[in-house]
Structures are given as C-alpha cells and as structure tokens.
Amino acid sequence: MSADSTSQPGDALPGSPITAVKDERTAIVELAVTGTWDHRLWEQADQTWQECLAEHPTGLLLDLSYLDDPDARSAALWHTVQAHGSRMQPPVPVAVCLRPGTPLAVRLGRPDGDRGLPVYLDLDQARHALAISRPRTEQVRAMLAPDPASAAVARELVTAACREWALEPLLPYARLVASELVTNAAEHAGTTVDLVVTRLGPQQRGKSPHQHYLHLAVYDRSPELPRPVHDGDTLPDGALTLRGVGLHVVGQAAWTWGALPTRTGKVVWATIRQPPP
C-alpha cells in the first residue's frame, strides 16, 4: 500500500493564522483562518483544508469570523473545499461561520456550481447544523486502558469489524495499524485511549470492495502530535505479523495517515484501503 504522511495542522506555532481542531464527540473538524487574505495565507489555507478532509471528518466548519477579506477574494477556495467534500464517500458537509452581510458572506451564499455555502452567525449555530447533517456511517468504538494488552483488544475489534463489513482483504494492514496506533498512544500519552473504527465509501454494501475502506482513529489526552515519518521507509520483513514496530510502519501500511489536535488532546488516524487490481 502507498503511504502519504502529511504535515500536521497542529504543528503551527502559537498565534498562527490557521488552526484546525477535531471534536471527539461529533468528529467535526473546525478550521479557523484569521488575518489579512493574501497569497501566503492562501497557500497555508489551501494545504490545511486538504489535510483536514484527508482525515474524512463527519463535517468541516470553516471559521472565517476573523478573516480580513473585504473583496471576497478567498471565496473561490472555500467553494472548492465544499465541492471536494461533496464528492467524498460519504460526503463531508461544509459550513461557514462568518458575520452575515460582509462581501465574503454574500459571495459564499450565492450558488457556485450546484449550491451556495451555508453561512452562520456564530459557531454554535454552525456546529449544530453540521451535527444534524452528518452522514450515517457504520462504526464501532472502544475505550482502552494505557496498557500494552490494549493492542490485542484493538486487533480483535478491527478483525470483527472487517468481517462484519466484508472487508477481510484489509485485515492484515488494519490489524497492524490499529495495534501500532494504540501501542503508541499507550506508551507516549499514557492516558486512556478511544479507538474508533469506521467503514467509509458508498453507504450501500455490496459495491466493489475497492470502493470501501477503513478509517481508524485513536484519541488520547496528550496534545503532543507525532512527527511525520520519512518518505522511503519500507515495511520490514514480517511486519504484518508484528506489533511495536513504530509509527513509521503505519505510514507504509496505511493509504494515508495524520494527526489533529482535539479539545482534550489529539487524534491520530489512518485510512486503510485496498488498491485497485
């Protein structure tokens, strides 16, 4: 499988114009962009929204309340974010928090292609709107102790989920990645760990197995994000039957992986999918 170790939105220094935080309860990611809109901010925002959607959240909230964009030059980018989210399986709804009546709010509210972006006055309104529009997904979760034995529980949970969802071809990689993510959290965070396993892809079962994939998310209570793995690392011999071989192996066994801050710590996630024949 290919690996795509992304840079982490949470790596930004304090005072950064862009922050991204995931809500553990709703799995919605909030992306806040502040400051004057210019080419540099566009580059940062363009990279960060792609990292956020790569995590396949249940929704993406764009907090543009403190973005200085009197000419609405950023509108095209936010419509692009919405279009990308709508094409994902399942779709990721996008909402904006922005003072109504501003040039940007007016521009975003106009349909650009299929529809305009929903704009809300405050964050609570936007959060509620996204929460009630979240797509239904098949999901299992477990709270695990910060103990080495939890890796075995994670493997068993993933095995049961893959068999229930007819995703057995993903099992070797999924078991390895779940084990490593839980082991890493137990060793480095030392807190309780929440493992969430989600089936993504078309909502109907029975489609081609190559259209379905597995999303693994491990939440802990430490804010320290992992370092990206180095490109070029390869799976060591026998890695699929081992545990404790490190996050660099996650970067190779997963289709893509990354990390985001949460309000209580962080989430490290990985996507496991079967490459086309």
TrEMBL record:
UniProt-listed InterPro entries: Anti-sigma-factor_SerPK, HATPase_C_sf, HATPase_dom
One Gene Ontology MF term: protein serine/threonine kinase activity
Residue intervals of the Histidine kinase/HSP90-like ATPase domain: 145-271
Domain of life: Bacteria
Keywords, comma-separated and alphabetical: Kinase, Serine/threonine-protein kinase, Transferase
Species of origin: Actinoplanes octamycinicus
Pfam families: HATPase_c_2
Xref: Gene3D superfamilies: Histidine kinase-like ATPase, C-terminal domain (3.30.565.10)
Family annotation (PANTHER family): ANTI-SIGMA-F FACTOR RSBW, ANTI-SIGMA-F FACTOR RSBW-RELATED
Protein name as catalogued: Anti-sigma regulatory factor (Ser/Thr protein kinase)
